[in-house]
Structures are given as C-alpha cells and as structure tokens.
Amino acid sequence: MARVYNWQLGREMSYWYPESRPKRQFAAVFDTNKCIACQTCTLACKTTWTSGKGQEYMLWNNVESKPYGSYPLAYDVKVLEMLNSGKWTGKVYEGQTIFESAPAGERVLGWRPEQQDYAYPNCGEDDCAGQVDHGAAMMALPHMSWFFYLARICNHCTYPACLSSCPRGSIYKRPEDGIVLVDQGRCRGYQECVKGCPYKKVFFNPMAGTSEKCIACYPKIEEGIQPQCFVSCIGKIRMAGWISKQQDAKPDNPIDYLVHIKKIALPLFPQYGLEPNVYYIPPIHVPLSFSRQLFGPGADEAVKAYRNAINDPDLAALLCLFGSSEKMMPRWKRVGDDVFGMDDKGATVVKVPRNEPVIVRAAYDKLYQITRTNCP
Amino acid sequence: MKSVIAPIVAAVVLLAGCQRAPTRTNEIVTIPTRNVPLIPTDPAWEGAPEHLAKLLPQDLVDPRLMKASTAEVRVRSLNNGSDVAFRLEWVDPTQSDMPGPARFLDGCGIQIPRTIEPNPPDPQMGEAGRPVEISFWRADWQASVNGRKDTIREIYPNAAVDHYPFEAKPLEPGSVARKEMETRYAPSQAVGNNRVGPRESPVEEMVAEGPGTLSPVPGGKPRGAGVRTKEGWAVVIARKVPEGLAPNKRTQIAFAVWEGASQESGSRKMRTGWIPLSMRVAK
Ligand code: SF4
Ligand code: SF4
Question: Which of A53, A131, A180, B52 makes the best surface tag, with the fewest CB within 10 Å?
Fold first, then answer.
C-alpha cells in the first residue's frame, strides 16, 4: 500500500497504488434539489450504452429515492455497516476508509451483491422517511417527512476501488481526463471490481463474461460535449467539467467554484476514501444528520450557502448555467444579470439570463383561434 | 459386441471414481500410448498410474483464498510423444456452470514452465522473463461446447427482453450488417476477448510471467473435455509435450482447481506447488 493525499478527508491515506493524478480530472456537479426522478437520464444511458445482451439489468445511471431507495439493493448501508467509520474533526476524517479496513487477503473492504439485489431498481421510490400523519406533517415546517432523489453514475474516482481491486490491472484511469475504464480486451471476469466498488457502479455482464461500467461518454467528452445523461436531464440538475486540485482552484472554473470555493457541492460518501468526482448539492429539506452521513461534514454549510443563493448574484447566476448547453463549459463569468458559459479559450458557448422574462399569454389565442390549456 | 461393451464398462468404472485401485505414484508419470485420449471416459486412462495432488489455498498473493475448499485432485497422464494429456478428477458436489453476477464457475488448470531448468520459476504463475504455460478448462465453456445456446434465457429462463437494437428491422438475421451491429453492442467480443458463449473448445491455452500477467497464446490449439461424475468433475486437458521433456527427463507441473460455489475465480483458487513430471520410456 502507498500513502496518498485525499483532500476530501483532509489527510493522507493508504491506497494500493501511488498517487498519480490525471492531466485533468473529469468531474460533475448534480443539484439534488432540482431532480424530479423522471429517469430520462437512466433511459438516455440505457439506450446509448447498455441495450446489448447481458446488459439487461445494468443501469450505469440510476436515480434512487433516499432514504429507502438503493440500486443494487442496500449498496450503501451494507458498506456503512461494515466500515469501521469514525468521526470527523472539522474537515479531517478520523475513521478508516475501505482501503484502510481491508481484511486479510483483500485489497479493499468490499461485498458482492447477489443477482436478486439488482432486481429492484425502483425499490423505495417516493417513500417518505417517517409517517405522514393525517396530512399534519405537511402543514408544519420543516416537514417531518421527507425524501429526495439521488441520481448516480460512476464517480470516476481519484482513488478507484474498482481499479485497485483488479488483480490483472484490467481497469485504468485515463491520464488525459481521469475517466475510469475497464479494458474489455484484458478483463477475465473475476468480478473483484464489482466487489470492491462501494458505489456498485461496475457490473458483470453474464453474456460477455467481462465487467462493464459507465464510460462518462468519453467519445463525447473528447469532442467537448457533455455525456448523454447530462444533456438529456429534464431537471437541468447536472453540469460536467474539470476539477482542479484544491489548492489550484480557479474561480472561473464552474466546478472549482461550486466545489472548492463556494463548497456548495459535496462528494458522496467521502468517508469511503475514493475521492469520488461527482459532487452533489445536498437537498435543503432533509435532516442534516442524514446529509452529513451521505455527503460529509460540509453538508451544513452547503445547505446554508444554497439557501442564500438568492443574495449571492454569482452563485445564483452560475446555477442558471446548468443544462443550458450540450457543450462542455470549462469556464464561466457573470456580467450584470447574464451568465456566460465559455470554452477553454474564453469564447462564449452560451449566454443565459439570471432571470428569465415572465411572459403572460392570453387564455384565448386570437391568431390561431384556440383556447390555450393550462399547461406550462 | 465385446468391443462396444468394454469401453462402456471401463467408463463406468472410471466415472465411479476408479474403483479398481490404480497404481499410485509420488509424482506425475506420463505413460506412452498410441492415441492421446481427449475425453475423461476413455478406457485408455485405466492403464495410467494416478498421483494424488493435495491442494492448498492460494494465500500468497492478494486477493487470496482464505478458506480451503477442494482438498485434492487425482491426476493421470498419457502421451504419444508429441501430445500429452492430463486427466484431473476431483470432488465437487455443486455443478457451477452458469455465469452471472456473484456466480462463479468450476474450473481447473495445469501449469508447466516453458523451459526445463534445475530451479523452476515461481509456482505462482511464473516470473518476469521465466514464463509458464497454462491450460485452463471451465465448466461453462464445456456447457457451451455441449450445445448450450447463447441467449439470456439459457441463464435466466424467465428473462423478458423487449428488444435488442441489432435484432430490429431492416437488419436481416445472418446478414453482415446485423453481425456488425451486434458486435458493436458486445465490446469484449469486438476486441476478440471471448470470455463466455459459443466456442470450439472448453480449454484455453495461456502464458504468464507472474500474477496478473496471464495472456492467451495466439494460435494455440487447446483441446480437452470435462464431464460431471457422481462426485464432482473429471476433466481432460491436452497440449503439446513440454519443450525438452523426453523419456527419463523431468520437468515440473502444478495444478489449480476453482470451486464456483465457493466464489472462487482468478487468484482465489486451490492450487499445488510444483510436482515433478516425468515421462516413462515406451516398452
Ligand atoms: S465509482 Fe466505483 S466504478 Fe466508478 S471509479 Fe469509483 S470505484 Fe470505480
Ligand atoms: S434526467 Fe435529470 S431530473 Fe430526470 S431523473 Fe435524471 S437527473 Fe433527475
């Protein structure tokens, strides 16, 4: 095991391989407050990448209702139960990661879902935490009953457990963009990666005999276009980009701004130790104790900053850039009430107003001589 | 009639676990024969002595097998001077030949150093610059060779599939266009990594220079067959006679057995260290 630095834990940790960061790292921010669980992302991915034989059960992208939803079944609580997790002192994690608590003979602490664990992708959908007691729960604020939608893809982790679990070195992290891929020519289907990934985002294909996973739509990324699940997102909750090292954060990089500067977007289960690169704006209506378990100790501040976005013109503007173009926008700026998404050279990709003009249309359309239905 | 009945009787005797006590040897002795048998039920095996190889868990290289499973494998060998076959038989009450998530496959392998040396390379898959040759049999490959179809319903009989894009009109079954489209949806097969599904042989020939370096031998002619016995598996693996092995010469051989029901695959296996392999002089 080597010693590597994990900024999400605020400390060094043990990992199977020495630290080797890519030239730039693919990353994403998902705003959980905007997801409506329409599953358009899930279907966009499914029809693009996993409609082949043996991929029937695979969802490289899935959206689960928290607290009860999970795919595969209980993927999250299984690891939380096994892990000798510990306290955070400020932003420093004092418990063990899945690498540090690997049992004898294993490279990581892992478990293997059974086949039937993949059979309930909609388990827990729209189930509230707590009982809605004769409607009273909905009358008082904050709501006693809550749920939210958690959209998940592979995190293209800085310290992937899938990669370190593979005894053949069949999984690699691309040096040019940090995307984690299974080499389909090298994989022999040992399923060690399936056992190792705590997010369960590698899947075994029984008709190919190899493991397969989210490829971050790398052919699109190479063309400067965001992945399928991003561009098809109805809720416009997603933004793809590049994340810098914490100390090199650039304010004009939208991902750096949200993650490192505003600290409004947080990793999922940072305590596992993988330095995952999909960052979530936590839901604002969920008990903070729950959000802290999922997103780490930054949850309180993140929720506060998000609630205050209305008074924060830059942040409010940047949030409007989500889902505004299919192009990658590695840079951004705000000018007055407009926000600009820009390419690497600073050329404008898209301009979005912070406030969309409100247009009221008459109930009766004189031009077409028809009554409009009340549909937004 | 006699000529038909005799092999059947012999086969039954063999499948019942070689009830007629075979000659036991302390090492693997390969016996000359005219035709190398390629199936485990061939009566020719009756004439070969047997070596009882104790298996140990692979507990040296991570990920390891921490709990012992298959205890031993019984090995016989026959050769015709150019080809050599090994018959491996072991106890395994569960037949594991269906691939799937968290489902693993029964298998066995033999390993021989590429060159005969006084000190053979590390028995854990060889060493850099000192390769070992490996032949590997797997139960699901045997099922495919025996005729199992390559559809999801063979694995999950109740699977419901609405549609595969490559089976849609106007792509005609059997057409080049359809084959091309189908391959695009099967990346491992597109790059020639045919891990499951249709094949000509249930055996694969490979070479390794240390753990994690296993790679297929291009143009290899893997041969063999496995059958379920009352107690487990009997498998024949045939290959060319190792370079330099001749009557009164010795090389080394190692064996490995994977028990699917114990979730064994890759480095999680039961294995032997090196066992001497010698060739008996033809009488
Ligand atoms: S989320 Fe899982 S599959 Fe994706 S890179 Fe991390 S460990 Fe690997
Ligand atoms: S498409 Fe967007 S809004 Fe719909 S489920 Fe996916 S992430 Fe949520």
Answer: A131
Task: Say which amino acid occupies A153.
Answer: I
Q: Let me know whether B155 and B140 are in one domain.
A: no
Domain count, chain B: 2
Model ipTM?
0.91
C-alpha distance from residue A362 to each of A310, A319, A369, A371, A373 (Å)? 30, 31, 12, 9, 11
The reported pLDDT for the residue numbered A232 is 98
**Interchain pair B150, A167: CB under 8 A:** no
> What local confidence, expressed as pLDDT, does residue B141 receive?
98
Nearest residue, CB atoms, B99 vs list A53, A107, A209: A209
Domain that holds residue B70: 22-146+201-279
Residue B15 lies in a domain: no
Say if A89 is an interface residue toward chain B (CB within 8 Å).
no
CA B23 to ligand 1 center in whole angstroms: 53
Residues (pLDDT < 50) of chain A are none
Rounded distance from Cα A214 to ligand 1 centre (Å): 9
SS3 per-residue string spanning A210-244: EEEECCCCHHHHCCCECCHHHHCCCCCCEEEEEEC
Q: Is the pLDDT of residue B4 over 70?
A: no
Q: State whether the beta carbon of A79 lies less than 6 angstroms from ligand 1.
A: no
Instruction: Check CB contact under 8 Å for A189 and B185.
Output: no
Give CA–CA dist A74/A117, Å, rounded: 8
